[in-house]
UniProtKB/TrEMBL annotation:
Aspartate/glutamate/uridylate kinase domain segment(s): 61-219
Taxonomic source organism: Ziziphus jujuba var. spinosa
NCBIfam families: PRK00197.1, proA
Identification of the protein by name: Delta-1-pyrroline-5-carboxylate synthase
An annotated Gene Ontology molecular function: glutamate-5-semialdehyde dehydrogenase activity
Annotated CDD domains: ALDH_F18-19_ProA-GPR
Cited HAMAP family: ProA
Length: 718
């Protein structure tokens, strides 16, 4: 729980003010209304809504009169599913001028709540000169009158910003201090919901807070924000009468972090190659020299996670225990690329064990340091005209924001890769690894010389900073959400910055009728059981129909079951093998399970892969060279194999060195991608005073010039 939100522990009566139950066209937003009802079940809540006319030509009072009955019917239906009854209380401004009515209203509300009935207040276009003038001011008034412990005002943005939310320079204000913020805030256009916009919400929040009721303004579009507020998370903007007395720790804003990372990255790129290399070697030395301290912090994280009831897979990923490192010597790094919509498979593409020694991490960093210099590589030279030479050179992307999972070893590897490629980096790790991440970040930044700056790599410690970072499309060049598809989708919807998501790894092995069945068994077992959670593991086994009566096929099925693989069938295989039918033929199990299906021939297998696959890695096992070539040329996947396990689709096994991931996109790179994926290009033109002048005096030659081995130049990314 955030210390500034500790007051929520005492909340027993909550008022929710919302104008987000309608869509822009004025119709009810059923999804948001349902989520609101489910959250209101947590506490006894007084809720009220503003039903307004989406068309200024219509009479607002008439629209509200029609809409209120529909809204209440929906409230009744939804609350009844939770065994809760709702009631409607219509109020006007005049009622609150009567002391007897106010007491009667208070008694009525107490009686309703005592009978598990949620009162829903509605107002019908109040007079702007009265005691309340819109639903927000009514919310503040009710919070005061009903002696609420907390008022939550739901908006269409995350909270109160220092300027218009659409302005990238605007910062979300965590705690509103009237003495500080009252004259500093610039309000943008009126909100799409409600009548008064953010100005009205702030006025209502100040009114209630000054009279003793804390207020939080937050987004009503998220389905769980009320619950998160009640759990004490630092979301939205809090208003509290004692806020001016709270000790405010000087925080570095999201923009300041990103700008600092960019400035440091430019200084890093200006260093000689050997000095950049030395930074990585110093990091490796620091890891080994501080192994005991790293271990202690990591064990503290593990203990806290165990007490918190985290599952075993997460605990395994969290641990940095001594153990045998993978022989692949691969890096668990994320591919970072500049194009929005670049599909990428991250999950499961890991070949270093989570219990690796710190020394194994150090070796990985040293291996990265020994790679060929990636920055300033001259890729192409062209003579445009006499004395006018053009070069295409490699350069870093700029500033990267990586939101990653619980693996603290990922922090080391991502940071090392960013340094090698000259990129600035902002990291947000999981809270369960906060101690491990903190000490690793400290050790890494301590190895960065002052001439570059330790702010080259920033560690974001609060989840609440992410919305601010996602607005910085003028400073951050790429966002990489490393986690679930839900996380990727949420971030894509929340930012204009290019986002690198991850695609499914639905890999197929097709066993042709001419296959040697002993070979097929080896390939299939390895593809499925060598590392089932990997993105290059087999998820679907396709078998030629002529093999269904072959003893080798029966042996293959028995071998899979012997290895503990749970089998699901397509329409044909489920009947033949008497196994459960798969719910979907496009399914990534990431476990000891797979789908089996029978196909007529290689063309049916190819069609199946194109319809149900993810264009990752697909394999054919066959002795027929013509059939094999057909498969290799017609399957449109990033990697296509003949008589070899799909598990070979890996940067280290391909000899690329440090793999940053496996791309399933058709743009820029496909399959295992090395360090070059962190780079983009620039054009450098050298002349002798030439001018275009309508191309009158320019004799273009466009002659390709040789690129000499070792042709590099210092390039500072702008």
């Amino acid at each position: 729980m955030d210390p500034t939100r500790a007051f929520v522990n005492k909340v027993k009566r909550l008022v929710v003010g919302t104008a987000v139950v309608t869509r822009p066209d004025g119709r009810i937003a059923l999804g948001r209304l349902g989520a609101l009802c489910e959250q209101e079940f947590i506490r006894c809540i007084c809720s009220f809504s503003d039903l307004r006319s989406p068309n200024p030509e219509f009479d607002g009072k008439a629209c509200a009169a029609v809409g209120q009955s529909s809204l209440m019917a929906l409230y009744d239906a939804m609350f009844s599913q939770l065994d809760i009854t709702s009631s409607q209380l219509l109020v006007t401004d005049a009622f609150f001028g009567n002391e007897a009515f106010r007491q009667q209203l208070s008694d009525t509300v107490n009686s309703l709540l005592g009978q598990r009935v949620i009162p829903i207040f509605n107002e019908n276009d109040a007079d702007s000169s009265g005691i309340f003038w819109d639903n927000d001011s009514l919310a503040g008034l009710l919070a005061y009158e009903q002696k609420a412990d907390l008022l939550v005002l739901l908006s269409d943005v995350e909270g109160l910003y220092s300027g218009p939310p659409s302005d990238p320079k605007s910062k979300l204000i965590d705690t509103y201090v009237k003495e500080k913020h009252q004259g500093e805030i610039t309000f943008g256009d009126k909100s799409r919901v409600g009548r008064g916009g953010m100005t009205a919400k702030v006025e209502a929040a100040v009114y209630a807070a000054d009279r003793g009721t804390p207020v939080v303004i937050t987004s009503g579009y998220a389905t769980d924000n009320i619950i998160r507020v009640l759990q004490g998370e630092r979301i939205g903007t809090v208003f509290h009468k004692d806020a001016h007395m709270w000790t405010v720790v000087k925080e570095v804003s999201a923009r300041e972090m990103a700008v600092a990372a960019r400035e440091c990255s430019r200084r890093l790129q200006a260093l000689e190659s050997k000095k950049r290399r030395q930074i990585l070697l110093n990091i490796a030395d620091a890891l080994e020299a501080n192994e005991s301290a790293i271990r202690a912090e990591n064990e503290a994280d593990i203990s806290a996670a165990q007490e918190g009831g985290y599952d075993k897979p997460l605990l395994s990923r969290l641990a940095l225990k001594p153990g045998k490192a993978s022989t692949t010597n691969n890096l668990d790094i994320i591919f970072l690329f500049v194009l929005l919509g670049f599909d990428f498979c991250i999950h499961g593409c890991i070949f270093m064990t989570s219990n690796q020694k710190i020394s194994s991490l150090a070796r990985s960093v040293r291996k990265l340091a020994d790679m060929e210099e990636p920055i300033g590589h001259v890729l192409k030279r062209t003579e445009l005209a006499d004395g006018l030479t053009l070069k295409k050179v490699s350069c870093p992307l700029g500033v990267l924001l990586v939101v990653f999972e619980s693996r603290p070893d990922a922090l080391v590897q991502i940071a090392a890769l960013a340094i090698r490629s000259g990129n600035g980096l902002l990291l947000k790790g999981g809270k369960e690894a906060k101690r491990s991440n903190a000490i690793l970040h400290k050790l890494i930044t301590s190895a960065i010389p002052d001439s570059v700056g330790k702010k080259l790599i920033g560690l974001v410690t609060s989840r609440e900073d992410i919305p601010d970072l996602l607005k910085l499309d003028d400073v951050i060049d790429l966002v990489i959400p490393r986690g679930s598809n839900k996380l990727v989708s949420q971030i894509k919807e929340s930012t204009k910055i290019p986002v690198l998501g991850h695609a499914d790894g639905i890999c197929h092995v097709y066993v042709d009728k001419s296959a040697k069945m002993d070979m097929a068994k080896r390939v299939v077992l390895d593809a499925k059981t060598d590392y089932p959670a990997a993105c290059n593991a087999m998820e679907t086994l396709l078998v030629h129909k002529d093999l269904t009566h072959h003893e080798g096929f029966n042996e293959l099925i028995r071998a899979l079951r012997h290895k503990g693989v749970i089998l699901y069938g397509g329409p044909r295989a489920s009947t033949l093998l008497r196994i459960p039918e798969a719910t979907s033929l496009h399914h990534e199990y990431n476990s000891l399970a797979c789908t089996v299906e029978i196909v007529d021939d290689v063309f049916a297998a190819i069609d199946h892969i194109h319809e149900h696959g993810s264009a990752h890695t697909d394999c054919i096992v066959t002795e027929d060279e013509e059939i094999g070539e057909t498969f290799l040329h017609q399957v449109d996947s990033a990697a296509v194999f003949h008589n070899a396990s799909t598990r070979f689709c890996d940067g280290a096994r391909f000899g690329l060195g440090a793999e940053v991931g496996i791309s399933t996109s058709r743009i820029h790179a496909r399959g295992p991608v090395g360090v070059e994926g962190l780079l983009t290009t620039r054009w450098i033109l050298r002349g002798k005073g030439q001018v275009v002048d309508g191309d009158k005096g320019v004799n273009y030659t466009h002659k390709n010039l040789p690129v000499v081995d070792g042709d590099w130049m210092m390039v500072v990314h702008s």
